[in-house]
Amino acid sequence: MSGRTHIETFRIRRSSVPAARRHVETTLTTWKLGPLIEPATLITSELATNVVAHATGIGEYFELGLRRRDGVLVIEVGDSYQWAMPEKPAALDPEALGGRGLVIVEALSAKWGVRPRSPGKTVWAHLPLGDR
């Protein structure tokens, strides 16, 4: 089955990160995409954490979109922070406590990126569905 979409809105606060992970797990279970739960929840966690860490004071909410289409699960996290588009760091500081989120997203996804929206941006990642 293809063409499914589910969008949920969360407040920009730390407690929304585990809530977003639970939402992904529930949705993917319903869609019978159990093998994708672990990478999808980790990607969601990293993207939602970035919103909470970097987009505070800009808007009250972020959107989490899950789309199943054309053999791919698309995970999208959108917020209204528009001044800086995320980029994977060129080099990681092994002593740093953070800065690995987009490296993890890149490692788990087939591809990822960011696109502007008005206002703000949406960061997305693709996970192949395989033979589902």
Helix fraction bin:
25-40%
Structural class label: alpha+beta
Number of domains: 1
CATH class: Alpha Beta
Kindly estimate the percentage of residues that lie in beta strands according to DSSP: 25-35%
Keywords: Kinase, Serine/threonine-protein kinase, Transferase
Domain Histidine kinase/HSP90-like ATPase: 15-125
GO molecular function, one term: protein serine/threonine kinase activity
InterPro entries: Anti-sigma-factor_SerPK (IPR050267), HATPase_C_sf (IPR036890), HATPase_dom (IPR003594)
TL;DR?
The chain is α+β, with helices and mostly antiparallel strands. It is built from three helices and five strands; from the N terminus they run E-H-H-E-E-H-E-E. The protein has a five-stranded antiparallel β-sheet, covered by helices on one side.
Characterization of this structure:
The chain has a single domain (4-128), classed as Heat Shock Protein 90 (2-Layer Sandwich). The protein is globular and about 35 Å long. It has helices at residues 16-30, 37-54, 101-108, and strands spanning 4-11, 61-69, 72-79, 111-116, 121-128. Helices cover 31% and strands 30% of the residues. Strands 1-2-3-5-4 form a five-stranded antiparallel β-sheet, covered by helices on one side. The protein is α+β, with helices and mostly antiparallel strands and 132 residues long.
